[in-house]
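Final paragraph of the annual report: two paired records, presented back to back.
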Amino acid sequence: MRNAKPWKAAVAAGVLLLAVACGSGGGKDDQGPAEQRSVGKGEGRVDIIAWAGYAEDGSNDPKADWVHPFEKRTGCRVNTKIAGTSDEMVALMKTGEYDTVSASGDATLRLIAAKDVAPVNTRLVPHYRDIFPGLKMRPFNSRNGQMYGIPHGRGANLLMYRTDRVSPAPDSWKAVFDGAARYPGKVTAYDSPIYIADAALYLMTARPELGIKDPYALDQRQLAAAVALLKKQRRYIGEYWSDYQKEVTAFKGGDSVIGTTWQVIANTATAEKAPVKAVLPKEGATGWSDTWMVSARARHPNCAYKWLDWIVSPKVNAQVAEYFGEAPANAKACRETTDPHHCAVYHAADEGYYRRVHFWTTPVPQCLDGRTDVKCTDYAQWTRAWTEIKG
């Protein structure tokens, strides 16, 4: 999903397992794996699955190294497997060969449902107390009042436009949906089935009669409406993007003039003299938050817990956030960033801002909006729909 210097690649298609309630109870029975009760001496190693840029050891950038200090402090040697998609992460975790994974919201529910991850005992992660409240006990990282991971960071999917080509300045997603005809061949969108949620979010206010309350909880009728809107938009799409640098290039050259983006992309494009601006539209936005989860079959659970606490410690969380381009999860990290404006730029402490962000959450048959009189569509259906949309 991401490259070494921040980007999220397309979320690949995958068959979604039915989500089940997993408790923190006693053992690998119907209640799911048990949470760890204590952290002892490290086992000497920890096997990690991570997005590129999350477990840097100085090999990509000598200034970005938080792996070797961790190894020196804990005696846990880090073995990192870089994953390119959420589906790859899900598949790798099924092997039982890895201890922890930095899963995004489009993978977390699948991992919980399959019982491939265990509930996380937050008492064993001292720095958890400093995590922003808005990242705790969310639908994508908890079940029945039990956390299934430690939040890592977050970001919003924004609307970016060229200020010299788009006027008046847009403040609504209407510009890329019902208003897309104004920019034929110049509209860009994120290349992933999860982008269906962006259309659903717009329809929440554009077509209130559909009754969409959660962009990740769509029944058949609501999904059909979102798909129809995206097929209409498709006529005006110049390209779908997943590589952040390609989007920067497209906006600099004018091949794209309006579309979805991330703050780090807007920052990069601006630094490279592209006349762009990014806004959080009045409808709000979708977004992403990653969670460090522990394998239910972790062979090095003590080192895994030591890693969880290390990666969200203030200084390290600040390093990752700046290197990757996101808001840190630890509130105290904002005191540690090299750029004193980093947390302000990424709205790290602005819970009001993030209350307007609907973080990626895997669509499941049990409607996430609380409805029980209808069955919602799952990620497998979204994947088939996305293939149909792109043609």
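The closing record of the year follows.
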Amino acid sequence: MAATGAAGPRGDVAVTKGRDVVLVVDDAPGSLGALASELEAEGYTVLLSSDGADALERLRWVTPDAVLLDAVMPGLDGFEVCRRIKAEPAWSHVPVIFMTGLAQTEHVVAGFDAGGVDYVVKPLRAAEVLARLATHVRNARAVRLARDAVDVAGHGVVVVDARGRVAWCSPRARQLMHECFGSDDAALVPLQTWLADAAAVGPDGLLCRACGSGELLARRLGEVALGETMWLLAWRQASDATTLRLQRAALTPREAEVLSWVAKGKTNRDIADILGMSPRTVNKHLEHVFEKLGVETRAAAAALASRAGGDA
């Protein structure tokens, strides 16, 4: 049962341009005739699959706007089908709505844990399914458009779900993640751990992680739909990172002066003469500078100041 149109690559009836496509997966599709008719009357193109394997095969030809998925089926059950859909980048944005007679809490939780966005219990009420479907299709389209815009703009955006798992990341974010945490999907785990470390957030609201010749930064942008949190990742070169480190050190004007002369290669006695203080006082200022910058030697402090342009 599908909308009219030209034959598709698998011999199915092709989808009609401009109509939202819904894939309905149920091992007893004949029992869904009334629902399919209601969907078509609402302007949807309806595709039917009788098992999980067939549904995944159909997805290789047509990416629907939503999937209505039975949880209990022979072979691949709905939960596994949903997990496979969400694991495939080309399909992961598609909202999956479970429809099943399983109403126990553990089954509902399993549906959401597999990646479903909603859960309706049989016997189905067509009006309720249509209302939920319209909302999820609309939300998914808005999110997809926003994410496409992020991709085009080249921003490093990561979306983390309520359990702290990465639900989506832009190409730029994935590039940064791989450069700083690893070259494959195993990098997801340390990234998630890092973003979950609230204690590491600095006074400026940033998470900072030294990486190569600079720092990876993460700023929490706030919550989005379904308890998800959005983070903005960015890269900062070593010179910028050094400047920020000096700013965070909150040196006093006198300490900054002493450090600037150290960066110019002056001895404590030279600095004492220039600033009109004793060498012992210069040394005391330097002790405070070392502590605030987190360095142990005069050379390290001078190197930091030099990388920042000598302007402490």
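The chain is about 45% helix and 20% strand. This concludes the annual technical report; the extension proposal builds directly on these records.
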